[in-house]
């Protein structure tokens, strides 16, 4: 691993210096020994200081999205008691342009008819739900994913409870290799347009906007030049098997 070579070199130099000092100590009076010249620190160099600043962002990222989910109740303010199937069906009803007969994801609405509470798979586009505190309020939030047919994209959604109401605080659609929860961050992994790399996007909770917002994206080298396979909907016996907040 090239990134660790400087550290290993430094350790080797230190070891040689210690051995030399130990050998010298056998015949001297214990005086301090020089470790050699210290490299001169180099400050950052600012390039093109007269360059005119850009007046607009390079890439138009969507602003943070918050939306109250209509028609879905939260019994006892416990998000675990909310039926994920009902949550997705509420989105289908609210967006007929996307999920209607002429919408880009019309096949998703058709396949949602195969879903049953607590049992996913078997043609149901809804993936296993996960529960973790992503907003920092000490209560579990709900992370959902469902396939967007007839294409190969996956919808990623995060929900929280505010004032007895279910609120969507993240909505993103992408062609995904996988999704990860790391602490209070959600990371999406997608195929990159460079062989041997993948594209990762990180979303984190913003208390000011009260939503999950884009934090950073990066290309990461993943090895042999092959992209990972896009996952298919997984079967889950019940929401109780989903991840608990840590």
UniProtKB/TrEMBL annotation:
Signal sequence coordinates: 1-25
* TM segment ranges: none
Q: Does the keyword Signal apply?
A: yes
Q: Which UniProt keywords apply?
A: Lipoprotein, Signal
* Sequence ranges of Low complexity compositional bias: 231-246
Q: Is Lyase one of the keywords UniProt gives this record?
A: no
Look up the domain of life of the source: Bacteria
Annotated region (Disordered), positions in chain: 29-49, 224-246
Report what the protein is called: Lipoprotein
Species name: Streptomyces bangladeshensis
């Amino acid at each position: 691993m090239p990134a660790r070579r400087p550290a290993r070199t430094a350790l080797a130099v230190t070891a040689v210096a210690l051995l030399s000092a130990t050998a010298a100590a056998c015949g001297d009076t214990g005086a301090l020994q020089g470790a050699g010249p210290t490299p001169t620190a180099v400050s950052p160099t600012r390039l093109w200081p007269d360059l005119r600043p850009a007046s607009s962002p390079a890439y138009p990222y969507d602003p943070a999205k918050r939306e109250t989910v209509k028609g879905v109740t939260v019994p006892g303010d416990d998000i675990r008691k909310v039926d994920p199937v009902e949550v997705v069906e509420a989105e289908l009803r609210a967006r007929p342009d996307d999920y209607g007969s002429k919408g880009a994801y019309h096949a998703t609405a058709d396949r949602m008819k195969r879903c049953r509470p607590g049992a996913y798979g078997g043609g149901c586009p809804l993936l296993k739900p996960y529960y973790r505190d992503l907003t920092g309020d000490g209560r579990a939030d709900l992370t959902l994913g469902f396939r967007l047919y007839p294409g190969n994209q996956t919808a990623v959604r995060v929900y929280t409870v505010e004032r007895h109401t279910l609120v969507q605080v993240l909505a993103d659609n992408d062609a995904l290799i996988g999704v990860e929860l790391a602490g209070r961050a959600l990371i999406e992994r997608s195929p990159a347009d460079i062989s041997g790399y993948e594209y990762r996007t990180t979303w984190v909770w913003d208390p000011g906007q009260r939503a999950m917002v884009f934090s950073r994206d990066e290309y990461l080298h993943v090895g042999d030049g092959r992209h990972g396979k896009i996952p298919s909907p997984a079967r889950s016996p019940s929401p109780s098997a989903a991840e608990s907040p840590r």
